[in-house]
Amino acid sequence: MPSSQPDMRQVVGSDDILLVTLDTLRYDVACELAAAGRLPNLARHLPGGAWEERHAPGSFTYASHQAILAGFLPTPVGQGPHPRLFAAEFGGSESTAERTFVFSESNLVAGLAGAGYHTACVGGVGFFNRRGALGSVLPDLFTEAHWSPELGVTSPTSFESQVALAEDIVRELPADRRLFLFVNVSALHQPNWFHTEGATAAAGDSRATHAAALEYVDRHIGRLFDAMSSRRRCFAIVCSDHGTAYGEDGYTGHRLGHPVVWTVPYAHFFLQGPE
Question: Secretion signal: which residues (predicted)?
Answer without folding.
Answer: none
